Amino acid sequence: MKSNAGKALGAAKRRWLLALAACLPPGVAGFAPATAQDTAGGTTNVQISAEGKQVYEEICQACHMADAKGGGGAGAAIPALAGNAKLADKDYPITLLLKGRGGMPWFTEILTPEQMAAVVNYVRGHFNDYHDIVTVADVKRVATGPAPKRDCLNACGQ
C-alpha cells in the first residue's frame, strides 16, 4: 500500500517529471524519477522528515542534485539549497514552492501543504542547520498572504 505522500504525488507528478526530463540538457547525470516508498502513518517529526526526504528525492533533486548543491549548464544556473542562508527565513522556501520563481515552477498542483512543510523541513534541517519547524499553518499563511515584492536585487540573484 502506498503512503499518503506516494498517492498524492501520483500520476500528475510523474507527468511533470517526464516533461521536466525532456527539458533538461543532455548529460544531466542522476536524473531518474524515483518510486514512492511505503511509510507508516502518523505525524511525528521522524515521519515528516521521511516524507520530506521522499519528496526531495522524487522532485527536487532532479534539478538541485542529490547533494542539494545545485548546478549549472546550458545557460541555466540551479541554486544550491545546501548552505543557503536565504533558507534561514522559513517563509522564503515556502514562497518558492507556492509561487515559483525564474525557471522553478510552483508546486501547488503537485504537492499538498503537508508535503510542502515536510520537504522544507527536510531541506532546512538536512542540508542546512535550520531546525525551527515549518508547519502546515505556515504554508497556508504564506499561501494566503500578499505576493512577495520583487526587485532585481532579490529576483535576479539566487
The helix fraction, in percent, is: 40-55%
What do the pLDDT scores average to? 75
Q: Which geometry do the CA atoms define?
A: globular
Using only CA atoms, what is the Rg?
15 Å
**Using DSSP, what is the number of strands?**
2
Describe this structure in words.
With 158 residues, this protein is mainly α. 48% of the residues lie in helices and 4% in strands. The chain is built from six helices and two strands, in the order ααββαααα. A two-stranded antiparallel ribbon has the order 1-2. The radius of gyration is 15 Å and the shape is globular. The model is unreliable at 21-44 and 152-158 (pLDDT under 50).
Give the key terms.
single chain, 158 residues, mainly alpha, two-stranded antiparallel sheet, 6 helices, 48% helix, globular, disordered C terminus
Q: Which helices and strands appear, and what pairs or packs with what?
A:
Elements: H1 4-23, H2 45-64, E1 71-73, E2 76-78, H3 91-99, H4 113-126, H5 136-144, H6 152-155
Antiparallel strand pairs: 1-2
Helix pairs in contact: 1-2, 2-4, 3-5, 4-5
What can be said about this structure in brief?
The chain is mostly helical. The chain has helices spanning 4-23, 45-64, 91-99, 113-126, 136-144, 152-155; strands at residues 71-73, 76-78.
